[in-house]
Specification:
Distance between the termini: 40 Å
Order of helices and strands: EHEHEHEHEHEEEHE
CATH class: Alpha Beta
Number of domains: 1
Largest sheet: 7 strands, parallel
Helix content: 40-55%
Radius of gyration: 17 Å
Length: 244
C-alpha cells in the first residue's frame, strides 16, 4: 500500500474497463485521480465510487481545449499533476485496400494525436512535479502487424515513436515516458466471447489487474530509472507462435 501516496494522476478513457481498473488501483495505493472520458454517466459514477480523491471531467481526447480543462481540473482539485496515463483508444477493422478514410482519420486522431495532446497539455504540470510519469498505452499491435486493423496498427506503432521523443525532451525535468503493450485482456467489453489463446505462450487471456500492476509500477518510484522503454504484457504473444 501507499506506493503513490500524495500523487495525482490524469487518466483518459477511464470511465470503464482497464482505465477504470487503473484508477481504482492508484487510489488504493494513495493517489488522487482525475477520470477523463466521454462517458459522462459512467465516469461520474466511478468518481463517486472512489470518493474524495477522485474527480470526473468530460474529455474527448481529440479536443486539445478539453485536455487543458482536464489538467486545470487536476491542479484546482488536488494542486498538482504527477502521472498521465494515455489510455483512450479505439479500433476499426477493414483490409487496407478498402479501409475507409474516415475510419483512418478517427483512429489516428484518438490513439495518436490524442496522446500527443495529452502530453502537450500536461507537460508544464508534470515538469513542476519533479517526478512525473507518462504511461502511453500501446498494444501488441505496436510491436507486430495484424491484418485488417490498418489505422490501429499504425497508431500504436506511432505511439512508440512519440514515447521515445517525449522521453528525450522531458527527461531533463525528471519526467519519465514509457509505453505498455498489452495483449488480449479480459474486459467487460469482450464479455463471454470466446478467444482461444493456444497461439500464446501462457495460453490464456490477461486480466485487468495484471495490467494495472504494471501501470502502478510505472507510476511509482519503483521504475525511477526507466524511460523511453517498452513494457510488454501479452502472455508471450509477441515472442512467437506457441501452437500445441
Amino acid at each position: 500500500m501507499g506506493r503513490v501516496d500524495g500523487r495525482v494522476a490524469l487518466i483518459s478513457g477511464a470511465a470503464r474497463g482497464m482505465g477504470a481498473e487503473h484508477a481504482r488501483v492508484l487510489v488504493d495505493e494513495g493517489a488522487s485521480v482525475v477520470i477523463g472520458d466521454v462517458l459522462d454517466d459512467e465516469g461520474a459514477a466511478l468518481a463517486a465510487e472512489l470518493g474524495g480523491r477522485a474527480r470526473y471531467v468530460h474529455l474527448d481526447v481529440r479536443e486539445y481545449a478539453q485536455w487543458e480543462t482536464a489538467v486545470a481540473t487536476s491542479l484546482a482539485a488536488f494542486g498538482r499533476l504527477d502521472i498521465l496515463i494515455n489510455n483512450a483508444g479505439i479500433v476499426r477493422s477493414a483490409p487496407i485496400d478498402v479501409h475507409p478514410v474516415a475510419d483512418w482519420d478517427l483512429v489516428i486522431s484518438v490513439n495518436l494525436s490524442g496522446a500527443f495532446y495529452g502530453i502537450r497539455a500536461s507537460a508544464e504540470a508534470l515538469k513542476a512535479s519533479g517526478h512525473g510519469s507518462i504511461i502511453n498505452v500501446s498494444s501488441d499491435a505496436g510491436l507486430q502487424g495484424y491484418e485488417q486493423i490498418t489505422g490501429y496498427n499504425a497508431s500504436k506503432f506511432g505511439l512508440r515513436g512519440l514515447t521515445k521523443n517525449a522521453s528525450l525532451d522531458l527527461g531533463r525535468y525528471n519526467v519519465r515516458v514509457n509505453t505498455i503493450h498489452p495483449g488480449l485482456i479480459r474486459t467487460p467489453m469482450i464479455g463471454g466471447l470466446d478467444f482461444p489463446q493456444n497461439h500464446v505462450a501462457l495460453h490464456r487471456l490477461g486480466e485487468m489487474s495484471e495490467l494495472s500492476s504494471l501501470v502502478l509500477f510505472l507510476a511509482s518510484d519503483d521504475s525511477s530509472f526507466s524511460t523511453g522503454a517498452e513494457f510488454v504484457a501479452d502472455g508471450g504473444e509477441s515472442a512467437g507462435l506457441a501452437h500445441y
